[in-house]
Automatic annotation (TrEMBL):
Annotated source species: Phallusia mammillata
Subcellular location: Cell membrane; Early endosome membrane; Endoplasmic reticulum membrane; Endosome membrane
Top EC group: translocase
SMART domains: AAA
One CC-aspect GO term: mitochondrial outer membrane
Protein name according to UniProt: ATP-binding cassette sub-family B member 6
Substrates-to-products reaction catalysed: uroporphyrin III(in) + ATP + H2O = uroporphyrin III(out) + ADP + phosphate + H(+); coproporphyrin I(in) + ATP + H2O = coproporphyrin I(out) + ADP + phosphate + H(+); protoporphyrin IX(in) + ATP + H2O = protoporphyrin IX(out) + ADP + phosphate + H(+); pheophorbide a(in) + ATP + H2O = pheophorbide a(out) + ADP + phosphate + H(+)
Main subcellular localisation: membrane
Signal sequence interval, chain numbering: none
Lineage of the species this protein comes from: Eukaryota, Metazoa, Chordata, Tunicata, Ascidiacea
Encoding gene, per UniProt annotation: Abcb6-001
Length: 870
């Protein structure tokens, strides 16, 4: 037995027994708020006992601190074991692979604050609040400090070392931060208790309340940000640490030869690079330059806010109707409540769709969505056309098209789910928690909060686990579509070798492989949905049981029970889809990854900032000591020097791989030279814009590929602004007009995929007509007749002669008989010019060119006759 001495404002002393085992005397000044314990030491602080567990509208603080301290002790041991495991099996990460993150710095800062806070609280309890220390104060100080310290240690260690089998923060670190947050949140159930600091008016209570708010903010941040692990090196960085290639010094990329996205780890989080993705998308979220579209965006947001305001009032009016009917209120009161309820329900709809507010919002958003989709596709299409020839030669068309299709579709889904589903659902949950705490009590708010925390945690964890299945399914889907498209594009080869069954078998294998990944994806989805259903129903059961008890006790009315059931079901309806929305957002990011890979493809040939517009006057082409290679291991061109004067025709001959076509590509600036200089009329082509350079050059390629369009438009491609009469004149000059007019549809004849409905000679003439219509100053002929028969070649040579007349021309020739009249012939071998001169001069040298000429005469006696005719 002990006596407690209390002094109130009237300075009267009251004596009452205190339930403590050690005799103490406490003086309590009701005016100043100062409170002092006696000097005797006890386990619990003054006026606190381990039992009963529930006293004065709250949990016993001594019991609460004891249980939470025990939990932290267990977690401390678990974190220490994780640290030992990491130090034993982890691999040290190089500094250049550690991501820079402001959020990581905040993590460290908040953990340092949480580490200092127990010491501050212990000192305040000892000096100001209680006037002495107690056993529970010491226990809380030691165990909370230990748990935060080892958590900080693990956080710093995970940035320096990592396990191959793990990504992001270790589960025990995430669980520790979750428990720290839960400890602070659970204390809210004692909101109305005089033994806690929530309702205290004196300075000591306000100090403790401030410390609690600080702990709540810090632990909440650690809990949320912990799932993204901003400062932890990614698994792909670990895989690159032993790579001999220095990825930071511009080594050759291998991504173009792999499946798009194949370089990404299967376990890498789709939230990686979130800011970069949002930064890329942001210009398309806000339609700059269109006031009408901007007004639509603002209107959609206003309708969204209106929906959040309407949602709580629907169950509230339903409650009023039930109470009015139960009490027998007059009809004049009831009908107003009913009309208001129906009107609000009409505005709300089902909470997902069908309501007036949602319908209007969806209507106004259509144009904004189309704007975003259109601009993203346009920018990506322009980016692909700006990429180098090297990338286009190694791309997989089927995968690229599939990635564009899925990526652009996912953008619309991302904006819709995030802006109009995720954010409204979060707002509804916050409003519901505040409403239940203020109108019911803290228990109902706690039930909703705990269910929400468990729901979100399970959803995020399981969805992140499912990521690798979804990404693998996308990769195999790309492969299946690529295999199908590749097979269909090469159907002639399939027919030639009677390989239909083989192609069908390969496609079947790809489908089976895809469906294996699809099965894993869908099975993991079932696990996710089941876990969400269990958590939601447990929360509904707990809240309904508690509300029913309060109704039976007379604390609540029947309408309150109806309100809770209606509101909680209304809240859980979108919450039930929250996991779906989160999964869809993550799926959208996964689908967008391949598209972002395309955006990340760097342009190899880029115009300088001061690039000028090229204007050709004469047409002099000069190669000055040019050296070039595709890969450093193999040099393609070595010190190439020649000058083509205006109106001259130069021919390039030599064996395959000698660099003839490479010279043409360099002149067209598909690549930049490693050393040397290429000039047109004395202007370095690397200093002019690519568009102006290529506008001055016309090309007749060896393999002419036409668009699946009519002949008129295919010829007009040489100059898209040309009239129909100009197109026909070009066709006449190319000696193709008479053939076109004999076709049933004449110039409207469709040429088919890649122009396969036309013969080789007809396609070549169309290409020549294009070049004539373009009217370039310089003409490049890349073995334009090598695949034609002799008669067709002779006819096309006449057309080519008209194209080259008066223009600087460079011809890559396979048949030497076609270039005997060239002003100069350059003989290349292994990237070097070994001989140069006219046909007669080279024959007199009796060198490589002479041997090639004799060899062709021997192989084709008909060519000898053609040469004499020429």
């Amino acid at each position: 037995m002990s006596l407690v001495l209390t002094q109130n404002k009237a300075d009267k002393l009251h004596f009452s027994p205190a339930n403590t085992e050690i005799s103490t005397i406490q003086v309590k000044d009701g005016g100043s708020g100062l409170q002092h314990n006696c000097t005797h030491f006890s386990y619990c602080s003054c006026h606190e006992t381990l039992s009963p567990l529930w006293q004065d509208k709250g949990i016993s603080r001594c019991f609460y601190d004891t249980v939470t301290s025990a939990m932290l002790a267990v977690l401390t041991v678990a974190v220490i074991f994780q640290i030992i495991k990491l130090k034993r099996n982890g691999v040290i990460v190089e500094a250049k692979y550690k991501p820079k993150s402001f959020c990581y710095k905040l993590q460290v800062t908040f953990l340092l604050l949480l580490l200092v806070e127990p010491l501050i609280l212990f000192i305040l309890n000892w000096t100001v609040i209680h006037g002495t220390s107690s056993g529970i104060d010491i226990l809380v100080f030691i165990l909370r400090s230990a748990a935060v310290f080892v958590s900080l240690w693990l956080l710093l260690l995970e940035r320096k070392m990592m396990l191959l089998s793990k990504k992001g923060h270790s589960p025990i670190a995430l669980f520790t931060w979750s428990v720290l947050l839960l400890i602070e949140v659970l204390s809210v159930v004692s909101w109305d208790s005089d033994h806690w600091w929530f309702v205290g008016q004196n300075g000591n209570d306000q100090i403790q309340l401030g410390l609690w708010v600080g702990r709540l903010v810090c632990t909440a941040f650690l809990f949320v940000v912990g799932f993204w692990a901003p400062g932890v090196p990614k698994l792909t960085h670990w895989l690159n640490m032993d790579d001999d290639r220095d990825i930071e010094n511009g080594a050759e990329e291998e991504a173009t030869s792999q499946t798009l996205g194949g370089h990404r780890s299967a376990t890498e989080s789709t939230w990686g690079g979130l800011l970069k993705k949002l930064k890329l998308l942001w210009p398309y979220m806000w339609p700059a330059g269109s006031f009408l579209l901007q007004f639509r965006v603002v209107l959609c947001i206003a309708l969204l806010v209106a929906g959040r305001v309407v949602n709580p009032y629907v169950p509230i009016y339903y409650k009023n109707i039930v109470n009015a009917l139960t009490k027998g209120d007059p009809w004049s009161v009831v009908w107003v409540q009913v009309i208001a309820y129906v009107g609000l329900k009409c505005l709300q709809g089902s909470g997902l769709s069908g309501g007036l507010l949602n319908g209007m919002r969806q209507y106004f958003w259509i144009r904004v969505q189309q704007y975003t989709n259109r601009h993203v596709q346009t920018k990506l299409f322009a980016h692909l056309h700006s990429l180098s020839l090297r990338w286009h030669l190694s791309r997989k068309t089927g995968e690229v098209l599939r990635s564009i299709d899925r990526g652009t579709t996912s953008i619309n889904n991302l904006l819709s789910y995030f802006v109009f589903q995720i954010l409204p659902t979060i707002c509804d949950i916050v409003i519901a928690i505040i409403y239940f705490i203020s109108s019911f009590n803290a228990w109902f708010g706690l039930i909703i909060f705990v269910c929400l925390a468990l729901y979100l945690a399970s959803t995020i964890i399981i969805t992140e686990w499912r990521t690798k299945f979804r990404r693998d399914m996308n990769t195999k889907d790309n492969k299946a579509k690529q295999r199908a498209i590749d097979s269909l594009l090469n159907f002639e080869t399939v027919k030639y070798y009677n390989a239909e069954d083989y192609e069908v078998g390969r496609f079947h294998e790809a489908i089976v492989d895809y469906q294996t990944s699809e099965y894993k994806t869908n099975s993991s989805l079932v696990v996710l949905n089941m876990s969400q259903m269990v958590i939601i129903n447990i929360g509904l059961l707990a809240g309904s049981m508690l509300c029913a008890k309060y109704v039976l006790d007379g604390t609540f009315e029947i309408g309150d029970f109806v309100l809770f059931g209606t509101y909680i079901v209304q809240l859980y309806t979108p919450l039930g889809f929250f996991g779906t929305y989160y999964r869809m957002i993550q799926t959208s990011f996964i689908d967008m990854e391949n598209m972002f890979d395309l955006f990340d493809e760097g342009r190899e040939i880029v115009d300088e900032d001061e690039a000028i517009v090229l204007s050709i006057d004469a047409g002099t082409v000069k190669f000055d000591d040019v050296c070039f290679h595709y890969t450093p291991e193999k040099q393609i061109l070595k010190n190439i020097n020649f000058t083509v004067q205006p109106g001259q025709t130069y021919a390039l001959v030599g064996p395959s791989g000698s660099g003839k076509s490479t010279i043409m590509r360099l002149l067209f600036r598909f690549y930049d030279v490693q050393s040397g200089l290429i000039t047109l009329d004395g202007v370095d082509i690397s200093t002019v814009t690519q568009q102006s350079l290529r506008a001055c050059i016309g090309v007749v390629p060896q393999d002419t590929v036409l668009f699946n369009d009519n002949i008129m438009n295919n010829i007009r491609y040489g100059r898209v602004s040309a009239s129909n009469e100009e197109v026909k004149e070009a066709a006449v000059s190319a000696d193709i007009h008479h053939r076109i007019v004999t076709m049933p549809d004449q110039y409207e004849t469709m040429v088919g995929e890649r122009g396969l409905k036309l013969s080789g000679g007809e396609k070549q003439r169309v290409a020549i007509a294009r070049t004539i219509l373009k009217a370039p100053s310089i003409v490049l002929l890349d073995e334009a007749t090598s695949a034609l028969d002799t008669t067709t070649e002779r006819n096309i040579q006449a057309s080519l002669a008209r194209v080259c007349a008066g223009r600087t021309s460079i011809v890559v020739a396979h048949r030497l008989s076609t270039i005997v009249n060239a002003d100069c012939i350059l003989v290349l071998k292994d990237g070097e010019i070994l001989e140069r001169g006219s046909h007669d001069e080279l024959m007199d040298m009796e060198g490589i060119y002479c041997d090639m000429w004799q060899q062709q005469l021997t192989e084709s006696p008909e060519q000898s006759k053609d040469a004499k005719t020429d």
